[in-house]
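User: Here's a chain of 386 residues. Predict its fold as tokens.
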Amino acid sequence: MAEFTYRSHIAGISPEALFAWHLRPGAFERLVPPWESVRVEEDRAGLAEGSRLRFAVRHQRTRDDLARHAAFARFGPQRVAVTGATGLVGSALAAFLSAGGHRVQRLVRRAAVSHQEIAWDPASGCVDLAALEGVDAVVHLAGRSIAEGRWSPAAKTLIRESRVEGTRLMATSLASLKRPPRVLVCASAIGFYGDTGDREVDESAQRGNGFLPEVCEAWEAAADPARSAGIRVVHLRIGVVLSARGGALARMLTPFRLGLGGVVGSGSQGMSWIALEDLLGAIQYALFTESLSGPVNVVAPAPVTNREFTHTLARLLHRPALLPLPAAGVRLLFGEMGRALLLESARVLPRRLAESGFSHLHPTLEGALRAELGRCPLGRGMQHGP
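Assistant: Prediction complete.
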């Protein structure tokens, strides 16, 4: 059987550091291309001697991860607690940080079964405070999805409470510790700004109007107890996360591959997005950049329109995009949720990230989609995926 070997040079990283990265928990997950469907049931260690993983994309991922971890190596290994660690972002973050040499503890809504878990239950207001003592940092990502159906009054209550009450519980718990963490990084959303129309906004903009802006404002305010206790608090206002493994992009892939995709509404509404890999990098950046606190927009440098997104995705999939979804159809099918998520405009800029020196791996939409779909040009050192 023929065997293909791919070699690349990783500058500035010692062979020992490169080898150690591959042996840590999380390394396998980091090396699985995003377009491949793999679920890791248990990862006690990294890649064993003799393991083989193909595709040049893994070399690029290794190079990018090592560079990002090297930038903050002076802080040493950190103990990081993560809520929402089973979700799309949380699971990827746990693998990224673990492979970087940090100890990640997942907060779980049941009894902890190992030292890598901490029990908490936002519904009952219970947290294992003893297990949280001495943690260096907390990343709070937990919250009910806003895109799981129409927003009935009951659904809106659950969306709000899952964010506000969970954040308040975490903030008050951390504030009560004898050895509180130095930083709390909380997920928020660009929904804070509401419908921005044709305006581009940054972190200086005021809250918009409507359900999502009100939720985001209360969500961020719920972290005040931690802030008052002297913990640095960062609110990541996250845009649409692009990942082939989940979220909005994953839901679009099947209809687009069948040639059933199309422009939504007028197609002129702005869309502010972020590649999953850049979201992970932004979370890490917020953990270790002491000058960052308060709201930070986590989006790519340039918003696109719905029409631009639609045609770019269709072109990369080699499919037409001829079936538009009119605004009236969106309102009929999805109600208030559809209007807010699909028809309102979001033109949000990452001013604070840019001014503080953060660098995106995927600053353009086409580059981000190519990376997620395995359709990067061979000249960039990455092979086409399936």
